[in-house]
């Protein structure tokens, strides 16, 4: 019998917190909007980025995602000072660990190291391997590729790699002049940043390792930014940064970027979902 899985990736923008000076304040209304979005899709596997703050001595701060999203099995991890990732599943998590994912140069959370969450899920007798990733947005693309290579070389199948990759796909149409115009006023050097963003290596490396971008070309649209009002934050250009990649054992039955009024209230990223067969 064919196993069907619904997978979602969602960047929750500081775990539904907002920065006020040196303090992070929890926004219950944003968390409620995220709950509306997730419950509306009812994923079996949910990868969250910017989902948990990892303080000193292993102290982690996050909402009660199991209750919020109705998914029983949960694992979260990150290095000190990092807004780390979280994996939730309808299926048991047989094994989970934190793996390094390069430097955190330029991260607003101040983390010096970034992490990935790697897990094995027991899905009706089938083991499914899942990596949740969120590399730094401020490093060069070559450094991002270097950070991913250990994950790719050690990955097992059937496997998923999901998250906020902070990388543009070489298959998506981006115009440099448009990027520069959108970035002007958002950064001190818009032309330099546009050039760096358009050095699109990572996604092609993922494809070379046998991973498939589950979002069909017809469904590809930006995942950042949403219409969330953030008067003290830069909104930036319209970019597709969030992906669900699957190994070739999976078939893609449906995929979409979820754009809704609730998604516009929940985060600065739109979530991505994919319905997969195995």
* CATH class descriptor name: Alpha Beta
Helical region count?
8
CATH superfamily: Endonuclease/exonuclease/phosphatase
Mean pLDDT, to the nearest integer, reads 94
Order of helices and strands: EHEEHEEHEEEEEHEHHHEEEHE
Q: Helix amount, in percent?
A: 10-25%
Outline: globular
Number of domains: 1
Please give a quick description of this structure.
With 278 residues, this protein is an alpha+beta fold.
Structural description of this entry:
The chain is α+β, with helices and mostly antiparallel strands and 278 residues long. The chain has helices at residues 13-16, 28-41, 65-69, 141-154, 176-183, 190-197, 202-208, 261-266; strands at 4-11, 17-20, 23-26, 45-54, 60-61, 73-77, 83-89, 93-103, 113-123, 126-133, 159-164, 211-213, 242-247, 251-257, 272-277. Strands 1, 4, 5, 6, 7, 14 and 15 form a 7-stranded mixed sheet that branches. Strands 8-9-10-11-13-12 form a 6-stranded mixed sheet. Strand 10, helix 4 (141-154) and strand 11 form a beta-alpha-beta unit. It is globular.
Write the layout of secondary structure elements.
Elements: E1 4-11, H1 13-16, E2 17-20, E3 23-26, H2 28-41, E4 45-54, E5 60-61, H3 65-69, E6 73-77, E7 83-89, E8 93-103, E9 113-123, E10 126-133, H4 141-154, E11 159-164, H5 176-183, H6 190-197, H7 202-208, E12 211-213, E13 242-247, E14 251-257, H8 261-266, E15 272-277
Parallel strand pairs: 1-4, 10-11
Antiparallel strand pairs: 1-15, 2-3, 4-5, 4-7, 6-7, 8-9, 9-10, 11-13, 12-13, 14-15
Helix pairs in contact: 5-6
